[in-house]
Structures are given as structure tokens and as C-alpha cells.
Design a protein that fits this description.
Elements: H1 5-18, E1 25-28, H2 32-36, E2 42-47, H3 63-72, E3 77-79, E4 85-87, E5 90-97, E6 100-105, H4 119-130, E7 144-151, E8 154-159, H5 166-170, H6 178-183, E9 195-201, E10 205-210, E11 223-228, H7 232-240, E12 246-247, H8 255-258, E13 264-270, E14 273-279, H9 300-308, H10 312-320, E15 326-328, H11 351-360, E16 368-374, H12 379-391, E17 396-402, H13 404-412, E18 418-424, H14 431-438, H15 458-469, H16 473-489, E19 494-506, E20 509-510, E21 525-526
Parallel strand pairs: 2-11, 2-12, 16-17
Antiparallel strand pairs: 1-13, 3-4, 5-6, 6-8, 7-8, 9-10, 10-11, 12-19, 13-19, 14-18, 14-19, 15-19, 20-21
Helix pairs in contact: 9-11, 10-12, 14-15, 15-16
């Protein structure tokens, strides 16, 4: 299946609803038999989705594909666990002017085939994305005007305008060998990463082997197999039966039972995804063949009434059984992401106020509203069922569960009045919320791609435009937070919750899962 860059983001986001998502904690059970076994150098990792190709030929920008590619390739810069930028293939950088980023490239870095890394490879890697309109990563580089090689180990990336978050966008732009790419006829990935590809089994597994000429410290693990196991029950059983050593996205509801099994360590990891509800904001209904009918959701009082009817604490209790697996969300971002506004709080659960707002807006008898959602996806389904019960107390509310493909198609075509989704600010910066979700839809400028209900506020648009080019980080943060307050007062979406990822790791392996969902084999230590 092929995915464009927009579909990729939806995949990332909906995965965040479908699986059970993260503050970090660990529960350990010791297994004496495991301790007495010889130290292993090979590990098996169970993941929920296959990799949709390898860079630069990959067709999807989903979390699993990017995670696996990060083991094979390096970027100029990367994120740490708190989404702070750190050096990778670029050992340093500065700004000769507001539109130029000058990177000093590390020397003595080799590709898996023995070729040396130079600035020409960096320019080539960026140019092949910019020159290919169908490349799934092109949106990340839309601000880039050109790339210039200064010398063998210095390169300038020049943007059309000052662009403060270029570094954030470069974290998933992998560097390939210009010479190899121009001479190869087969799509075999060659990078500078800690691991190189040995065998590829398209629908089942992938085997990576340690690259012993890696430019950083040589990792403990010699060989790692990624096993692609989409069914969560099968993935859990493979972990319990010792078929995999590390497993991602275990069901939170099984946490207590799994924690009693000897030799297993469980981790809850904070994940910067917010699950939310949003609407069609247009004044007249565009659906059901009634274009002249007034749209109740265009009235902010109606949106606030729905917000006040949602008891998020009850949802967390009933869906997750334990509040450690999720926490209420109050805005577009979690505290991990730049732009989070600590002054924004949730509207309280208050059915009386909800009904009063409906009376004020002329809908004392309620109205019909259908929530588009994905069918049969565990956590997502349970959340929707509780929402149905709660919102039905004030209006005639119902669910429209759809197969995941049909759901994507429906909401991407903006053929939806009300929908539920999740968003992970993968760039670590709240500016993407403006660009993708809350600025007015402008297809030519690539703005509002996932503003699926045509939300529009001129002041939010102005702020979104200003923060795009504002280089003063403190002023940018202040302005971004002001815009979020305006959008939340508009109820541009109703934030529901941030849930948590559950990982399992067997004894004998030391590894702390990351908040950015990447599984980097070089970070895994063998006891």
C-alpha cells in the first residue's frame, strides 16, 4: 500500500488512539534462570507494524518505518527523550544570517559500504527530497530554498524566510551517499547508522547487523531482528513465551497480570499525543444534501456545551481502569512539546451549564450529531462508546464506526461533521499545530492540511504566520501560547486525553523506552 505524506501523519496519529499510550515507570521481576544464561548478543524486537520501505525509497512516514530507518541512517541532528535537539552527523551549526543555517559535518564517518561522508552527501540528500513532489518527507523541507556546499565538511541550508524550527524538521531527514545512490540499481539501504540490513522478509521480519565501523561507540547488540506482529494478543503471547525480547504497545489493561510474570520488566512511557474531537465549523451544513441548513456546530456555545458534557475522568476510569495509563488533556499539546501553555485548563464537566448553553444557542431540544470513528480498535472503540453515553445526555448523539481505510478517506475528504483523532507533534514544536490544524485551509500554501472542519480565526492565522518566521524563541513561545488560548476559547477542538505506551523488556536487557517512540538498538545494553 502506498501512502502520501498527509496519510502518513494520519497513520501516526490514529495509531496513537488505537494503541494504549505513557510518565515513565518500571516494574521489575527477577528471573534467576535468565541471570544464569550466557550473555546474548542477538535480540528479537516485536513491533506492531511493518516498515513501509527504506529510505530514500520508503512510501510512508509512519512511526515504525521511521524508527527502523533511524537504526540504519543518521540525520544531521536528532531529538533526545525530551524533544531537545542534539548533534548527530552535524557536529555544530550556526546562523550567518537569519535565513542561513551553516552545518559543520563530522569527519571520518563512513557509510556501510565504506564510502566517506562529505557535505556533497548532505546536499544530495536534501535535494532529492526537494526535487520530488511525491516524496513523503517533502513537507518537512518546504521552507528550504537551496543547499550549498562550502567545503568538504561544511554545508549551508538556506531557507526562503527565517525559519526557527528547521532543526526540528531535519531530525527525520536521513543522509544517504550520493555516489552509492547514483550508481546503485537495487533499492538496498546504505546509511551511516549503527546497524546495516542483512535480510528483509517483507511481511514478517527484518534482520539488522551491527556496523562495526560506526562513528559512535560500538553498541552491545550484534544482531537484531524486528518481528512485525500486528495483532496485540499475538504480540503479547510472543513476549510471554520468550519469542521476543522487547515488545511494544502491550495492552494497558493487561499490565497488572503481566507484571506478575517472572523475568519481565514493564515500562509506561509518556507519549506526546493528544486524542481529541473536532467538528465541521462552517455556518451552513455541507452534508446530507442540506447546504442551506444552519450548522449548530458553527456556534461556539454549542461546541462548549458538548465539551461540558464530557466527563473525562469517567472515560479514563472506564477505558483504562487505572489513571496511571492516561491523563486528561487540556489543549493541543502535552507538556513535552514547545508551545504548551500551562495556563490553559479543561472546561469542567457540568451538564447543567451544558444544557444552559444549548438553550442560549436555540437548541434546547438538542439536535442530531454523528461521530465518525474507527471500528473494532480496542481503546479507541471504548473511548467512543463512553462518549456516546455522555454526549447523548444533551443531544441526539450517535457513532458511525468505519473500517480504518474508509475512515481515513471520509475525514480526509472533509466529508465529516464530527470526528475523533489523535495528534502527535512529531517535530517537538507547537508550530505544526498551527500549520496543520488551526490555520485556515490554504492548499496552495500547504496550510491547514488537517484542518478537516475548516476552522478559521483571523487572529490565529496572524499568529501562525508570525511564529513561522520569528527567531526569538521566548517571544515566539509567548505568541504561540496566546494563539492557543484563542483557539481553545473557540473550542477549535475538544481535547480528551493523553494515554500511555506500555513496553515489555526481558531480564538481561537494559533499555529505557523513549518518549519519541523510537527503538534505537544502539541504546540497548546487554547485562
Amino acid at each position: 500500500m502506498n501512502y502520501d505524506s498527509n496519510t502518513k501523519i494520519l497513520i501516526v496519529l490514529l495509531i496513537s488512539i488505537v494503541i494504549i499510550l505513557s510518565t515513565s515507570g518500571c516494574l521489575t521481576n527477577q528471573n534467576e534462570n535468565t541471570k544464569n544464561n550466557p550473555i546474548k548478543k542477538d535480540i528479537v524486537i516485536g513491533v506492531g507494524n511493518p516498515a513501509y520501505g527504506f529510505y530514500p525509497w520508503h512510501t510512508s512516514y509512519d512511526v515504525c518505518s521511521i524508527s527502523i530507518n533511524h537504526n540504519i541512517f543518521n540525520s544531521l541532528v536528532s531529538f533526545d527523550d525530551l524533544f531537545r535537539v542534539k548533534a548527530e552527523l552535524a557536529e555544530s551549526w550556526n546562523n550567518p544570517d537569519n535565513s542561513t543555517w551553516r552545518f559543520r559535518i563530522r569527519k571520518n564517518v563512513k557509510f556501510h559500504n565504506g564510502y566517506d561522508l562529505t557535505a556533497e552527501d548532505v546536499k544530495y540528500s536534501i535535494d532529492i527530497i526537494l526535487n520530488n513532489e511525491s516524496n513523503v518527507l517533502r513537507d518537512l523541507l518546504i521552507s528550504v530554498k537551496e543547499t550549498k556546499v562550502i567545503d568538504d565538511y561544511t554545508v549551508d541550508i538556506i531557507t526562503h524566510e527565517p525559519y526557527p524550527i528547521l532543526l526540528n524538521k531535519l531530525t527525520d531527514i536521513f543522509i544517504v551517499s550520493k555516489k552509492y545512490q547514483e550508481e546503485t540499481i537495487k533499492k538496498w539501504p546504505i546509511g551511516t547508522g549503527a546497524y546495516k540490513v542483512v535480510e528483509i522478509f517483507k511481511d514478517d521480519s527484518l534482520i539488522l547487523e551491527r556496523f562495526d565501523e560506526y562513528w559512535k561507540e560500538i553498541p552491545d547488540v550484534k544482531q537484531a531482528t524486528f518481528k512485525f506482529i500486528e495483532n496485540s494478543d499475538v504480540r503479547r503471547n510472543a513476549f510471554i513465551n520468550g519469542e521476543v525480547d522487547i515488545v511494544e504497545h502491550l495492552e494497558a489493561l493487561e499490565y497488572d497480570n503481566l507484571s506478575t510474570i517472572p523475568g519481565i520488566n514493564l515500562y509506561l512511557i509518556t507519549h506526546p499525543t493528544v486524542t481529541y474531537i473536532s467538528f465541521d465549523f462552517r455556518e451552513n451544513c455541507s452534508l446530507k444534501g442540506a447546504p442551506d441548513e444552519k450548522n449548530p456546530l458553527s456556534d461556539v456555545r454549542v461546541r462548549k456545551a458538548i465539551y461540558h458534557a464530557i466527563n473525562i475522568e469517567e472515560i479514563i476510569k472506564r477505558v483504562f481502569n487505572n489513571s496511571i495509563f492516561a491523563e486528561p488533556a487540556s489543549q493541543f499539546l502535552t507538556p513535552l512539546i514547545f508551545g504548551y501553555n500551562p495556563n490553559i485548563t479543561r472546561l469542567p464537566y457540568d451538564l447543567n451549564l451544558s444544557r444552559e448553553l444549548l438553550n442560549q444557542s436555540g437548541y434546547s431540544d438538542g439536535f442530531d450529531l454523528v461521530l465518525d470513528c474507527v471500528q473494532e480498535t480496542s481503546t479507541h472503540t471504548r473511548i467512543c462508546k463512553v462518549l456516546d453515553e455522555q454526549i447523548s445526555k444533551i443531544i441526539n448523539f450517535s457513532l458511525n464506526p468505519l473500517p480504518i481505510g474508509e475512515y481515513y478517506d471520509k475525514i480526509c475528504m472533509r466529508n465529516t461533521t464530527c470526528f475523533i483523532l489523535g495528534w502527535m507533534a512529531a517535530t517537538g514544536d507547537g508550530g505544526e499545530i498551527y500549520d496543520y490544524i488551526i490555520r485556515s485551509v490554504d492548499p496552495e500554501a500547504g496550510i491547514g492540511t488537517f484542518n478537516l472542519g475548516y476552522y478559521s480565526n483571523p487572529e490565529v492565522d496572524r499568529i501562525g504566520e508570525e511564529i513561522t518566521y520569528m527567531m526569538d524563541y521566548q517571544e515566539r513561545l509567548k505568541l504561540m501560547q496566546e494563539g492557543f488560548e484563542i483557539a481553545m476559547e473557540d473550542v477549535a477542538w475538544i481535547p480528551l486525553l493523553s494515554s500511555k505506551l506500555v513496553y515489555g523488556v526481558v531480564d538481561g536487557i537494559s533499555w529505557q523506552p523513549s518518549n519519541n517512540m523510537l527503538i534505537l538498538i544502539e541504546d540497548i545494553k546487554l547485562d
